[in-house]
Amino acid sequence: MADSNTEIKTLGESLQQQGVSRRGFLKYCTATASMMALPPAMVPAIAEALEKARRPSVIWLSFQECTGCTESLTRAHAPTIENLIFNHISLDYHHTLQAAAGEGAEAAREAAMHENFGKYLVVVDGSIPLKDPGFSTIAGISNLDMLKETVAGAAAVIAVGSCAAFGGLPHANPNPTGAVSVSEIIKDKPVVNVSGCPPIPTVISGVLAHFLTFGGLPELDDLGRPKVFYGQSIHDRCYRRPFYDKGLFAETFDDEGARKGWCLYRMGCKGPMTYNACATTKWNQGTSWPVESGHGCLGCSEPDFWDGGGFYNAISIPDGDIARNIGLGAVAGVAVGAAAGMLNRNARAEAVSRHETVTVDDLEKTS
Amino acid sequence: MSKATLERGLNALREEIDAPVAAFFSSCVNCGLCAEACLFYTETGDPRYTPINKLEPLRRIWEQEFTLWGRVKKALGLAQPVTDELLQEWEPLVYDACSLCGRCSMVCPVGNDIAYMIRKEREGFVASGNAPEGMKGASTRAIKIGSPMGVKFPAVQAQVRHIEADTGLKIPVDVEGADYLALLSSMEIMNFPEYIEALARIFKQAGVSWTLCSEAFEATNAGIQIGSSDIAAELVERVVKGAEKLKVKYVISPECGHAYTAIRWEGPNLIGRRYPFKVVHILELLDELRAAGKLKTKGMEEARLTFHDPCQIVRKGGVLEPPRNLLNQVAANFVEMSDHREMNWCCGGGGGVSANERADELRLKVFARKKSQLDELNVDKLVTACANCRLMLEDGLEEYRVELPVVGLTEMLAEHLVEDNE
Amino acid sequence: MSSPIDFLLWVKGPAFDIALAVFVIGVVVRLLEIVLLGRKQDLAEPKGGEFGPGLRTVMTRTLPETGSFKRSPFTVIGGYIWHIGFLICLLFFVPHIELLHSVLGIKWPGLSNHIVDAVAVVTMVTLVAMLIDRITHSVKRFLSGPEDYLVWLAAFLPIVTGYLAYHRVLAPYPLVLGIHILSIEFLMVLFPFTKLMHTFTFPLARWYNGAMAGRRGVQS
Q1: In DSSP terms, which residues pair with A54 in a beta bridge?
Q2: C6, C9, C16, best to mutate vs chain A, most A CBs in 10 Å
Q3: Which residues does B178 contact at the CB level (< 8 Å), separation at least 6?
Q4: DSSP H helices in B255-356
Q5: CA-nearest residue of chain C to B52?
Q6: Which of A245, B101, B251, B341 is the most exposed place for a label (fewest CB within 10 A)?
Q7: Could you tell me the strand order of the sheet in which A93-94 lies?
Q8: Considering only residues 138 to 157 of chain C, which have any Cβ-Cβ distance to chain B shorter than 8 Å?
Q9: Residues 85-124, chain C: which have Cβ within 8 Å of B?
Q10: Each residue of B137-194: pLDDT tens digit?
Q11: DSSP secondary-structure letter at A193?
């Protein structure tokens, strides 16, 4: 990670110093614009904004997380422009990446907040435990307190990863820590949910680029996710869709269908109900994505995907133990039915015992 | 002695609920196909005559007292009760517009035996006093006099004497140890005595040992028609006693539809015990004789003729082939109706309808169904094997001004009989 | 947080368990309520058997009687299309086969989605036509009450919502899929309390009919 050299003032200067050519930089801006569904005319604006971007502009808070989001987005072993941007703009405070620790680190954070009050972005990964603050603290400060404190002067909050966006893995049944998402706590600031477990690197940098360029957040869906990346389902963009339509499915890993690249619906793919950019943008600079590698989509950008019925159960399979429930129901039914049957027999037997003989002398109504 | 009260009727309905009834009501999806099989609907277009609709009172009893959910609904006040008003309103549907012909039971897609249930439902109607006057009268005469038409044995004896004079044959009466006890229907005795003569001649030729019974000559069972098992049982008991007394091996059910149903199928269940004798329909016996070569006939009917299948004998009784076998022996030009055998259409007079004056207009109107069957064929003669059908057919043909002779099958066979001295 | 995903998970989870319980318990109770009533022993000498004719009637009643068919072809044909259509959609659409496999442990080949889609359209159109017929035909209108129309709705909704879900007409997908599964749960809950029970009782009814007729020597 680049050391905090205060002589580098802007992102443009920083990139230049790192050896990124003007051409390479503009290429990046063009790609970003295209990915964000912005017209080519916006490219110069993006370039200008990014060039001038100052630091510090981002404070990164890590709570109940696995660091997968940071790993995905930084890719320390293979530097990318995204990587460089992060280096530039998130130098001020990043739990995992910063060199400083202890009170010194906290002082740096508070200084950054004070200096840029009202203008900085807060990026959060990991969920926040509510049951007992002791479950996750940093320098003795609970996640909840740190979040509220830091967000007080933020321009916006980006909840990176499904944990910060929806509660993620800690939130899964039975949620022992009382984990919640950022948006359950922060109600008075704009929150962008960049969900995914982890999210795609270009998605986060695209959101940041948007913010740095336009000073605002991109259009969000009902779950607070940028529509440009989360507006389409995996199913609607999946290259294996023709196989789904034709009814050609892999049944198990490495069977004939799997080797032919058929649809993975029967192996639990949650593509139809998952909204993310994996099918188009893919991972590792477009190398591949889960379905292409032969594994069904887990639905990791959706809330509660851990409790969504099992990664290897098709979407159409209900969650409960159906066979057992049918068995129990049948037993209960037999018990109640036997009782009902006895009631019926008794009712009839009583009627038989109350039988009043009909004769030709009493065929007429008397009253 | 009990009285005809609503409670007695409701109780009777309760007694009739069994697994088939419950299965049938559970399965009905209101498709209305039963209406298309019922001549009372097809010839009037009145949806109230839809067979399953006739069962509403029984259905309510089943639902409200024999299903958990129905009981809950009743407790919550959400059920419509079976009242005397309801029974009164339904009475004409159940008695005037239904002959228990059973055609509906043959077509229901889910398999409901609607006629079975109508027979059961009538128990509740008669017990509560909701039955047609004509049928009440028939039952009363049957019990008190011995026949629904009020025929007593002396009338039978009078016919017997005529026949003996005409044929020179002796008609056995009260012969103990005879093989066959021949029952008769009042209709035959009064309107179609040629049946008795035919029996005498055929049995003589075939060497059948038979007898009439002075204490039990009446085959028809008005109790079945009005729907009272109590009355029906008493009537059957008379026959059984007579047969037991004469120690016969067989009892012959005559050309009368409901008589066969009564003695062959309902009888043992009405009296609660099996018979020490067997029951045969006259056509079954004649067919046996034919198969054994004992029914010698000569010549053929040249007239183009067809057969009206009496519902209770063919569809409900299982006597499907004998009439055809017998007809083929003496008819050169026998053509079947388009809906024939177990799918033939009712004449409209069965099930007590012909004893119910209130239903006269309706039964004549719906005879149009039978007429259209005949119109398709253009026959010169109509053969049947039930005296009640015969009368209804004659009434109907007259109503529609159709000149067509109706003849009984036994009688027709006798006409072609090779007598002893030939 | 209440999101479409939460709705879907609730529908696939606790709601399904409840609906299934009501369905299974209800159906078993209804069946026992019927068969435990039993039949009185028939003392009349039989002319034929019960078992063979009974079984035969269970099968042959599936075919229409010629006369009734001619008099009411729409009822018969509509009935066939609706039943066969819905069975094809239920049993031969691959996601459904997965569901049934998870319960029964057996799988069978499915039809291509395009075929099931077409069958669904035909079935829906037929159902609407049958509703109109039920309202306009004198006998059916006379016989029909609130239950008949409610059951029609319960039969129609799964197909139309399934069609909408398959075509991803409503967004997001978890919402429309949840509505589809909810419509099935509605059908399941309604089952034991309505004429839908004919699904399980018709073999009994046909059997009793055939057996009683067979005993008298007639094949009904």
Answers
A1: A10
A2: C9
A3: B172, B209, B210, B211, B246, B248
A4: 257-260, 267-271, 282-291, 322-330
A5: C143
A6: A245
A7: A93-94, A58-62, A120-125, A154-160, A191-194
A8: 138-144, 148
A9: none
A10: 999 999 999 999 989 999 999 999 999 999 999 999 999 999 999 999 998 898 888 9
A11: E
